[in-house]
């Protein structure tokens, strides 16, 4: 499955109404570690169709409030949701395998 590009509205709908677990990456274009993480997330999404992977650009004006509400103070910040509840928050770049292990995939 491909990585979805989300905004505040699609994020809220996806995390509250999705039966599958959802992993959301808060990132920015200027962030080096975010760029390094992007192919790892794409590989994770391809290898684990049982989860949905999405990205939210924190530099988009409509997403600033959402990032602040979730306590994003460093990027990349990854939030893992299951059954509408936040299960984990991970910060920083990591390999696909390390990320899968932390999420129990």
Task: Describe the 3D structure.
There is one protein chain. The protein is α/β, with parallel strands linked by helices and 105 residues long. The model has no long low-confidence stretch (mean pLDDT 93). The protein is globular, with a radius of gyration of 12 Å. Helix 2 packs across helix 4. It has one domain: Glutaredoxin. Strand 4 (77-82) and strand 5 (85-91) form a beta hairpin. The chain has a 5-stranded mixed beta sheet with strand order 1-3-2-4-5, with helices on both faces. The two termini are 15 Å apart. It contains 4 helices and 5 strands. Helix content is 41%, strand content 26%.
Query: What is the CATH third-level topology name?
Result: Glutaredoxin
Unreliable spans: none
Averaged pLDDT: 93
Treating each run of at least 4 consecutive H or I residues as one helix, how many helices? 4
What's the number of extended β-strand segments?
A: 5
Radius of gyration from the alpha-carbon trace, in angstroms: 12 Å
Gap between N and C termini, in Å? 15 Å
Number of domains: 1
Helix-strand string? EHEHEHEEH
Instruction: Record the strand order, biggest sheet.
Output: 1-3-2-4-5
**Portion of residues in helices?**
40-55%
What is the overall shape? globular
Largest sheet: 5 strands, mixed
Structural class, judged by helices and strands? alpha/beta
Query: What is the CATH-assigned architecture?
Result: 3-Layer(aba) Sandwich
CATH class equals Alpha Beta
Strand content: 25-35%
* CATH 4th-level superfamily: Glutaredoxin
């Amino acid at each position: 499955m491909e990585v979805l590009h989300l905004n505040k509205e699609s994020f809220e709908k996806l995390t509250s109404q999705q039966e599958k677990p959802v992993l959301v990456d808060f990132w920015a274009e200027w962030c080096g570690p975010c760029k390094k993480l992007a192919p790892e997330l794409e590989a994770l999404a391809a290898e684990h169709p049982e989860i949905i992977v999405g990205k939210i650009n924190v530099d988009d004006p409509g997403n600033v409030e959402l990032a602040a509400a979730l306590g994003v103070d460093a990027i990349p910040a990854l939030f893992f949701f299951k059954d509408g509840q936040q299960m984990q928050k991970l910060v920083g770049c990591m390999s696909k395998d390390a990320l899968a292990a932390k999420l129990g995939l």
